[in-house]
Amino acid sequence: MTDGERHRPPLGPVRVTPADPRYRDLIRGVNHRFTGSPGQIRIVGSAEQTVEAVQDAVNAGLQLAVRSGGHCLEDLVDGPDTAFLLDMSEMRQVYYDPGMRAFAVEPGAHLGDVYRTLYKGWGVTVPGGSCPTVAAGGHFAGGGYGPLTRLHGCVVDHLYAVEVVVVDAAGRARLVVASWDDEGELGDLWWAHTGGGGGTFGVVTRYWLRTAGATGSDPAGLLPHPPSAVLDSLVTWSWEGMTAERFRRLMRNHAEWHERNSAADSPYASLFSVLGVMHPSSGVLVMSTQMDATVPDSERLLAAYVDALDEGVGLCPAHTVRARPWLESMLQPTLPDTVTGMRSKGKAAYLRKGYTDGQLDALYRGLTDERYTNPGAGVLFMSYGGAVSAVAPNATATAQRDAVLKALYVTLWREPEEDGGHLAWIRGLYREVYAHSGGVPVPDEVSDGAYVNYPDTDLADPQWNTSGVPWSSLYYKDNYPRLRRVKASWDPKGVFRHALSVEPPASE
Ligand SMILES: Cc1cc2nc3c(=O)[nH]c(=O)nc-3n(C[C@H](O)[C@H](O)[C@H](O)COP(=O)(O)OP(=O)(O)OC[C@H]3O[C@@H](n4cnc5c(N)ncnc54)[C@H](O)[C@@H]3O)c2cc1C
What we know:
With about 500 residues, the chain is an alpha+beta fold. About 25% of the residues lie in helices and about 20% in strands.
């Protein structure tokens, strides 16, 4: 095999128009609430093909959108304005790049591919999300967090460099590599990809991963090592017998536990749980937890966690625990992805501490509202904190560094004619929980804004955000002015834009 053959892209460029039989398969992502209608789709297999595709879109004056894994919660890709869709899903290599002394990950690589290859090849990983089919493309640019985040921070805390197709003021598309070693505008471009969100500065064709401060040339020493085994636990509290009082107690126990146990050096740093406070028609409130099984006394620590949550609730939850190899647990999560192929709406929030009693009452009222029934609706509370807080809020574009929980409000359904009812319920619930701050999680003692990888266009809608605090401050806080300057430098023609893309400074 010649060098040329070895480095040949896997495919492409492939041009798909509406008459092509493949078109219908390509015009929507995971959330079936949105279906795009682009005049052209370009599937690319290399960075060079991506440059060419972006140039073609710019020359034709077509509004461009980029898809990698298709897990976007909003219509930022499949919106009505998208005329040219760039599909990165076939660029999915993961490998060690000795020249960069870092691991290269292409944007179409699913998290499951990333975990499998990094672990089988070198015994390392990154602290990314728990859904194996989310792709690096959007996930990394928005920050990325998951079961190992309390131990090792966000994915972007291990982002060494990015390769991006950008478009200059003359309308010329070109490939740029920016790393944390760079200063000035290049350094800014790297920084913007550490939480600035996807689809807003250019098209990422490659990420390189290496933990800050990692030395030597042995790849096995350049990223974190996951635990060899984890305890996977599932706890369920029945809705039968649940009262407002018990609900408040459980939620308070959960949040106060996280307030007490989220320091970077906590013996519980390896514990990550998702508490699903689902609609009563689902029958149960469910919590899945993953914890390093090799930590001394791990089983007792895990049992003490469950006891702390249950204290005073008085409902005798069902609890199962099994030890599993780490990779198996990541590739087959205890709570499977039930979102794919459904219509959905998500809304998010960071919590610095537990909700007030007034917020918990609003949550309980919303969940038990008899006018609404949906077992696929509820709020997920994810463990956060730990190593996240070891990084300064402005060191990366991921500003929220002292939250102890993330919340994801979600509702899932199938039928298009039901859209109105489900959207009304989730919007009403969120607005009630954040009634004291204009219907959104304005940073204060309890809240710390929202996570850009769970985009919610309602935050930019004055009907739903009456706080006077712009959506951009909720996502980026004090990092927004710098992101706007990066936008002006690197996307002067505003080629990469969607409903929640970073705006250039007002004077530009
Ligand atoms: C079921 C599910 C589970 C999730 N679990 C987690 C989790 O555990 N942790 C977590 O942090 N997040 C999680 N997320 C959120 C996830 O991180 C984001 O949805 C992420 O943006 C998805 O990336 P994608 O490439 O799969 O999606 P896409 O829809 O392809 O892209 C999302 C956004 O990124 C942009 N983008 C995509 N590729 C590129 C590229 N190559 N260059 C520039 N911009 C690009 C798109 O234009 C779009 O704006 C989850 C989402 C879902 C639906």
